Amino acid sequence: MSSRAIVKSKKVVKSTVKRRKVSRPSTSKSPRVAAPALPAPKPSAVHIERSTKREPLGHLLVEKLLRESGFKGVVSSAAELLEKYSTDESIFHIKPQIVLQPEDKRSVEIAVAVLGKETKRFPSLSLTPRAAGTGLGGGSLTDSIVIDIAAHLNKIIEIKEKDGFAYITCEPGTPWREAEKVLKAKGYYLPSYPASKQICTIGGAVANNAAGPDSLRYGHTADSVESLDVILQDGHTYTIKPLSFKEFKQLIKGQDALAKAADATFKLIEKNETVIKNAKPKTAKNTSGYPLWSVISTSVAEFKKGKGVFDLTRLISGSQGTIGIITSVTLRAVPIAKDTTLIAVPVFDLSSASRVVLEAIKHDPINVEVFDSLTYDSAMKNPQFFRSRLPSLDYYRVLLSMYTTFHVRWNRRLPEFVLLITLDEKAIAKKGAKIEDIVNILQVKGGRGTRVITNPYEREMFWQVRDASYLLSKLLDPKKRPAAFLEDMTVPPEHLAKFFTDIKYLLKKYNVTAAVHGHGGNAHFHFYPLLDFTSRSTPALIIKMAEEFFATAIKYHGNICGEHNDGIIRTPYLSKMYSNQVLELFRTVEHTFDPDDIFNPGKKVNPRFDILSSIRHTN
């Protein structure tokens, strides 16, 4: 494939810009395609309405200007490459007009600088960063320019050990599995590892603020970020890390893009501190919106007295490349826990699920994972699925454990849920408890049949079933696709049982099948309804289901976005979680960092993709 491939435009479309009166000047872009048929926040007064035309002349010129500016790497509009970047793991299909694969960080800076200039002439131009394309919300899809940072920027730079932790610095395209491998050799790991860790990248995990099983104890990826190198809208790279008040005051004396954005963000938080604090979701896990409540670790007043830090990495982590492009990441890794104990809790009575989970989290578990009866049933009906995942002898031993558990231990009854609770000796000792006492209490709370799993093949069986829930769901109906649009809802654990009861009712109401798994300690559920994307009725069904399912999460004081981020699918629905005032704060902070809307427009704020027409038509 030629790195200079260029598609000739058949027709040059003249750009038109329509403006309406605004209360203050702005260069922020508003939606460039038809508004989604969804409940979206009312447009801000700072918005400028612009043409939805794609401006092929602008894109054609960008290809030329990038080369002339010294960009190194692929600049292509070859049809087969554009198609490759038209999908990710989401339900959408949106074709870009140019694909960039920069060979070095300087080329990323050049791309941002060129776009920053040309977007003023051609408003439809934008730059969307992409890594492995494993996102479930369509965050890496665009109808303009996609910049693949994983193609070449994928190297581990260094690992340092200090004060009981390891600090790994790497480029954003570094595969998570590679970082995990080198850290494991030293006895450490990154605790926010997502289920996609075998195929995702470090930069993608930071941009989405990924989380996983061990996030129950250690939090999201943002909680492990030490520093980030980020290219802002002026085309320059800045190292961003937590700052004391003295360091912050020194920073904002400058006149560069970071100084101005930091100063404006601080003033925004200071002015709206109470509103921002009250807007923080009640759930432990959340990646929706911009977490302004996490930027200052204390109150504004305490920060001014020298306490706490001002940390813009908290804002950039999870921003999906909407306010800058990450070119380097330093993460803090923790020691791998030793002497762990796995407790399996079959929950046959759904009404007791909340009691069991609330009891489990009292003991500071590393994780509390969950999968449902349909997942276990699918595993038993598809034993061949595990053959490629396990060595031959282990394969038979794991299957023996699977069928023995069902026929003997569960007396041929499938529980509503199975909870997998991982405890470590250090935490148990700290709490002054004993394993046998914990097991007995969990049984009393409703976990009849709770057991400590000592057989290594039985342990492997439970984790194989849990980890394979999504892939097993694909086998339930090969003519349909597991649809990622409801898969990230979470509620406070005390509402787990009632919430899931309502979810089961809604699945039955819409006559769809979905295996359920997730992070039980956070009452965070992943489920993917099996839908036929070749059917013309599917897009409308998705819209209808999203409305009702999301409303159910909100009813139980939960949220619609625990760890998979907003992307295309959830951005229009943020008004269900946040007030108009808070949504305006989100728009303001995005505009502060990206006044010309260079970076990944239509995600997090200002939804611009028509969901109905953007949904894929293949399974």
From TrEMBL:
Residues 1-44 are annotated as: Disordered. It comes from the Bacteria. Residues 92-336 form the FAD-binding PCMH-type domain. Its cofactor is FAD. Residues 7-23 have a biased composition (Basic residues). It holds the Pfam family FAD_binding_4. The keyword Oxidoreductase applies. Belongs to the FAD-binding oxidoreductase/transferase type 4 family. This is D-lactate dehydrogenase (cytochrome). It comes from Candidatus Kaiserbacteria bacterium RIFCSPHIGHO2_01_FULL_46_22.
